[in-house]
Amino acid sequence: MLGIIGGSGLYSLENLTILKEIEINTPFGKPSSPIVIGKLEEKEVAFMSRHGKDHSLPPHLVPYRANFWAFKEVGVSRVLAISAVGGIKNTLRAGDFVIINDFLDFTKKRDNTYYEGKFSCRIEGKDKVSELLRNGKVVHVDVSDPYCPEMRKILKEVMTRLSIPYHYGGVYACTEGPRFESVAEIKMLKVLGADVVGMTGYPEVVLARELTMCYVSICVVANPAAGISGKKLTSEEVIEMMSLKEKEIGLIVREFVKLLPKSRSCSCKETLEGAEV
Ligand code: HPA
Fold first, then answer.
1. CB atoms within 10 A of CB 237
2. Is-contact 259 158, C-beta < 8 A?
3. Which of the chain's termini has less CB crowding within 10 Å, N or C?
4. Are 59 and 110 in contact (CB under 8 A)?
5. Are the beta carbons of 212 and 270 closer than 8 angstroms?
6. Measuring from atom 6 of ligand 1, which residue has the nearest CA?
7. Pairing between strand 35-40 and 102-106?
């Protein structure tokens, strides 16, 4: 099943026929919100609001591990994440869509792995992940191609079909937040190769990979990053842009669900092969 994560300003999905809402408790705590299972384009999908239904969770306190574990428990194998970002690259304008393909991690205090060796949660279950955790294995996953290449191509096709302009490829820098970045930090991130900046894309992408899920992210440039336009940054501006884009995001998600093939032909499901020590 496809899991969809709504970021800032996106707390529900248009056109979703809700079948049930599941409250889940995981070995990693409670997820950000109950998981809504519903039908979109005749297919079952699971929706979760990253910051909670009432946006009560700041980026550094989102229970990332619980969110992906909960997705795993309801049978999610692929995740489409929607995120607001600040634009760093010169060619990016507020309102642009970016299909990112790599990341830089500047977070500081987040649980960014399930695999804690002898300190891992002892989890029942016959699947490979549970077995690795139960046996206290140390696991290093490869992130050379962290955003599912198959899903990225589908997103590209979706944007083309809908005639929505987009940028294909981009490096996402994840900062700890909750404050916005300083001007000097943005200058630094630019030198290091970042195109956009956000506060939630990491560790999501890596946790998904550790669970052998496919993960793809469509980013909406909500504002030029700090110092670029010279204007003060506000949450208001971010939320406004996301609500301006809500219709388009709804169309993108629907078309994406339509085009997503039933089975996966990428190598994301083999992420754990050769990863354990
Ligand atoms: N920085 C970090 N996260 C963001 C921004 C930003 O400028 N805009 C939207 N999310």
1. 15
2. yes
3. C
4. no
5. yes
6. 86
7. unpaired
Q: What is the mean pLDDT of the chain?
A: 96
Locate tokens 């990979």: which residue? 209
Looking at this protein, which amino acid is placed at residue 163? S
pLDDT of residue 8: 81
User: Which tokens is 272 given?
Assistant: 């754990």
> 233 CB less than 6 Å from ligand 1?
yes
The CB density around residue 242, as the number of other CB atoms within 10 Å, is: 20
SS3 215: strand
The full set of domain ranges for the chain reads: 75-229+239-270
Please work out whether the CB of residue 219 comes within 6 Å of at least one atom of ligand 1: no
- Of ligand 1's listed atoms, the one at least distance from the Cα of 223 is 8
Q: Give the pLDDT score at 211.
A: 98
The rounded distance, in Å, linking the Cα atoms of 253 and 151 is 12
Number of other residues whose CB lies within 10 A of the CB of residue 277:
8
Taking the complete model, does pTM exceed 0.90, yes or no? yes
Q: What is the CATH topology of the domain spanning 75-229+239-270?
A: Rossmann fold (3.40.50)
